[in-house]
Each structure stands twice: as structure tokens, then as C-alpha cells.
Design brief:
Layout (H helix, E strand, L loop, with lengths): L4 H8 E7 L5 E12 L5 E7 L1 H5 L5 E9 L5 E9 L1 E2 L2 E2 L2 E2 L6 E5 L3 H6 L1 E2 L8 H4 L7 E6 L13 E7 L12 E5 L10 E10 L6 E17 L2 E10 L1 H8 L9 E2 L19 E3 L7
Parallel strand pairs: 2-10, 15-18
Antiparallel strand pairs: 1-2, 1-4, 2-3, 3-9, 4-5, 5-17, 6-7, 8-9, 11-12, 11-14, 12-13, 13-16, 14-15, 15-16
Protein name: Peptidase S1
Organism: Caulobacter henricii
InterPro entries: Peptidase_S1_PA
Length: 282
């Protein structure tokens, strides 16, 4: 079966938001992965940047599901997702990277839309496809809380790999992409979906579709945004998922099927973390 990873990930990517007391809201991006727990039971996992959840102080967030009616029209259907039990976070966080994972109960359509774990890049994926600086990748997210339409789908953008080398991942846990990062982009998936890529020096073409990582930071120098995004490799998503073990799924509570209030302000909580210098972009 032929897959279009762009469409598959659009379906699996959701907005995360939490209203604040001053009428503004904190916004981030997450995406859904499916795998099996230690007992072989299927589960759905929400992936986002750890700082997105860390800086949402309330016990619940709004997760932006979408529903398709019989006439084919989509509507935004956000629901309430519990992320804390009192002061205790219900997600797991990578010890050294800005990655969080949370087992969730989702509507059946979203359980089906979740991306298989196997689509996350392996340690050798960049070398396997001879990827490097200048290669184009796609990014999904909700910059400044904006969506592509009233149905709440994420905005698809692209950028080129802007750093070298990319491997080994253990030595270079992040890489740079030439695209502007805005509040709300944090946690969004970065991926490659190229159906006919010719490997340099080879005659054959390859179907190259994989999730390279997620947006975790932006680069700033002396307070100036350099329009460079920092991507944490998928290896660390895999390692974070491995920390879940047999964690029970987080309870999803039904919420009103309405679009939330217009953004009045954005907080630093939803913005990508700023790196003062490239040496700190790790």
C-alpha cells in the first residue's frame, strides 16, 4: 500500500492549548503515535515538546480533535485531556532532551490516524538515504495558535536542513532547519515525504517517508530571531516512548464541541525555547 506521509501526519497532528487567567492561552503542537505496550496491547501515544506541558500549569489541556460528518465536512471538536494528577505529571519526559510522551485514550478515528512507531527515523536513516544539508523537510504546527482552517487542521510548512553533520545522532542530537519558528510550533513533527528521491551517485529512485524528529527550539542571538528552527532527532522520541512501560492511558474527558476563544496573547510557555547561541542549541 502506498502512503502519503504528509496527509497521514496532518490527520495525526493536534493542537494543545490551555487557557490562562488573563484571557490568553498557551498553545503547542502534538502528534499521535501508535504502538503496543509490554503486554502487546495497542495504545496511542501523544508526542510533544516537554516544555509545552511543563509550562501548562493546570491539570488539563484542550486537545484539538476533528470530526468528519457524513457529508464529508470537518469540524473542530476539542476535548479535555488530563495531564496531571494534582502536582504529579502524567507524562514521561526524556532525561536529556525536550521530548514528552503521554499514553492517551482517543476517539476511534484518531486511534486509526495515529502514525505507526516504525515510521520514526532510526539511527541510520539519514545515512541510509544519504541526506544532508539542503534537503527539504516538512513541518506541521499551529504557529501563534493559527490553524489551516476552521476545522482545526495544522499548517504545513517546509524548510531545508541547515546544519552538518547530521550523524551519528548520539554526537549530534539536534539539527537546524531553515524556517521560522513561532509560538505554537513547539512539538510539531518534522518529516520527509519524497516519493521519488534519487540517491546521490545512484541510478535507482527511493520512496523516502519518515519522521525525522520534532521542533523543540528556535535560535536567537542578542534577542534577534534568526529564523532557524532546532529539531530534536526521532531517536529521542523512541527513547521517551520506551520510558512509558505499562503506564495506564490518560483519561480523556468530553468537552464542548466549540472553537476556543480568539487568542488575545501568547505566552513564553507555548513559544519554542530560545537558544542564545548555536552552542546551546542542544
Amino acid at each position: 500500500m502506498v502512503y502519503d506521509l504528509s496527509v497521514e501526519l496532518i490527520q495525526a497532528t493536534v493542537q494543545l492549548e490551555q487557557p490562562l487567567a488573563d484571557g490568553s492561552r498557551t498553545v503547542g503542537t502534538g502528534f499521535l503515535i501508535t504502538d503496543s505496550d509490554a503486554d502487546g496491547r495497542p495504545r496511542t501515544i501523544l508526542i510533544t515538546a516537554a516544555h509545552v506541558l511543563d509550562r501548562m500549569p493546570a491539570v488539563s489541556v484542550r486537545i484539538g480533535y476533528r470530526v468528519q460528518a457524513q457529508d464529508g465536512v470537518w469540524r473542530y471538536d476539542p476535548q479535555t485531556l488530563k495531564i496531571r494528577d494534582g502536582d504529579h505529571p502524567l507524562w514521561v519526559k526524556h532525561a536529556g532532551r525536550d521530548v514528552a510522551a503521554l499514553v492517551v485514550q482517543v476517539p476511534p478515528a484518531f486511534a486509526k490516524a495515529a502514525i505507526p512507531l516504525a515510521w520514526l527515523a532510526q539511527d541510520d536513516t539519514f545515512d541510509k538515504f544519504a541526506l544532508g544539508p539542503g534537503d527539504e523537510m516538512m513541518v506541521l504546527g499551529f504557529p501563534r495558535g493559527l490553524s489551516a482552517n476552521t476545522a482545526g487542521f495544522p499548517i504545513l510548512r517546509s524548510g531545508r536542513v541547515a546544519s552538518y553533520p547530521l550523524a551519528p545522532v548520539t554526537a549530534y542530537p539536534t539539527f537546524l532547519m531553515d524556517f521560522s519558528v513561532f509560538p505554537g510550533n513547539s512539538g510539531g513533527p518534522v518529516f520527509m515525504a519524497e516519493g521519488a528521491r534519487r540517491r546521490p551517485g545512484a541510478k535507482e529512485v527511493q520512496d523516502v517517508q519518515f519522521i525525522a524528529g520534532l521542533v523543540t527550539q528556535q535560535v536567537e542571538l542578542s534577542g534577534e530571531r534568526l529564523e532557524i528552527g532546532i529539531v530534536t532527532h526521532a531517536k529521542y522520541i523512541r527513547e521517551t516512548i520506551a520510558l512509558l512501560g505499562k503506564a495506564p492511558p490518560t483519561v480523556l474527558t468530553e468537552g464542548p464541541s466549540v472553537v476556543g476563544p480568539k487568542i488575545q496573547a501568547e505566552t513564553a510557555a507555548s513559544a519554542a525555547v530560545s537558544a542564545i547561541a548555536l552552542g546551546e542549541a542542544r
